[in-house]
Design brief:
23 strands, conserved putative lor/sdh protein from methanococcus maripaludis s2 fold, 352 residues, elongated
Amino acid sequence: MKQTMFWSLVLPAALMLAGCAKEKSAAPAERLVLLQTIAGAQVDNMMTYPGRTRASEEASVAFRVAGTLLRVTVKEGQHVRRGQVIAQMDDRDYRVQLMAAEAEFTQVKAEAERVMLLYADSVGTANNYDKARYGLQQITQKLQHCRDQVSDCVLRAPFDGYVQSVMRESYETVAAGMPIVSLIGDGQTEVIINIPASENLRREQFASFSARFDVLPDEQFPLQLLSIARQANVNQLYEVRLGLLGRHPQITPGMSTMVRLSYKSDGSKPISIPISAVHHSGDTSSVFVYADGKARQTAVTLGHVHNDGTVEVLSGLKAGEQIVVSGVNTLTDGEAVRPAPKPSKTNVGGLL
């Protein structure tokens, strides 16, 4: 009886100790990690940028002289031709000055001609001859200036286009250079976009541009590269001017558009990975590459950071490799890991 009780007490204890020993000797569980496969560098890639249209020619037209505005002969929205009169100024005072200059010119010219004749006959002095000649040149320029002032009292359109706004009314007193009418040209329409420095460095690889407008969703309009700014603006972006090919009356200045930039087939775009996959240690950046069930730490060289939460990798990775994209700050080099299963397409967010 005693022997039976002894084994009834010892046997469960032995089994419990054996179970503990098994748990201690079992290998630690592999950590689940989220992986992403590196895609190959895009060869014939493209980027999309928001843009806005504007007229290729814009001008706020003003008089070169001051005075009273007599009349504005155009209205907002009106089409004008180059050289067409768009405003007139009261030229009374300038005509008076012109008449006085003409009278003075006639007098000085007659005196200068007499002095020159005397000098030609070796009667006058060289000093008097020089004074007469320079005096005649001076009054000639003064007369031309007065004529120009009278002519400047008429304001003409510098190019074909449309009146965007009329800024002054008749009988107002205006100063020289004060805008009277704002014009926009009816020539080629331009599209303006802004690109980051990383894309500006690839300007030699630009192949083509095209624009799409929300009001014309079924049409795509080819664009011609006109210029790229050499200096970045305050937002560290470079302005790109694009010309809309052909005439499209339905597209007017001020419209919003999306511009697609395509690259040449021999160009390549750097690999981009999620920022969460990058492990920083001092000045060194690295990622964990998954291979043979382990996470191997690999140094990488980073490039431009995108607004979508990705960063360019200039070196250190190649297409086809799998990298850990979450929890990299707690991983160690060579640690055993196991890929986390991908959620079902019907299990949105992996909640089930």
